[in-house]
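Let's practice the habit of predicting before peeking. Look at the sequence and jot down your guess about where helices and strands might fall. Then scroll down.
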Amino acid sequence: MLYFAYGSNLHHIQMKGRCKDSVFLKKIDLEDFRLTFRSKYRAADIEPKKNSIVPGGLFEISKSDEKKLDIYEDFPILYKKYYFLHEGDKVMTYTMTKKTPFRFPTERYLNVVKRGYKDCKLDLKYLEKALII
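Done guessing? Here is the structure:
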């Protein structure tokens, strides 16, 4: 199964620890969405926004990896699954169920996401833009 990471799961070491079968394939952009941070966890989320993109990492994951991610993402309470097509393939990602107001992420969480951006060779300007209200 294909999985799109856009937050802390971009961090290759963390992702491998959580999902032992995961393989990073390439970086891709999710179009007509924007990155934000919200909830009491101050975690990454995506929301629809025309002419905007969310860069992320495309991973191949196993069924057991998906189950581990479901637990980590508190599916279906905190996050729900969202599916989209990329080059004809079905891709799964998570999006928060409750669209609460923006909450600035903790420094620790933000550093994990920044490391993930480096691991996946993503442009940090998208992350920086998401932090400006």
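How did you do? Residues 107-119 form the longest helix (13 residues).
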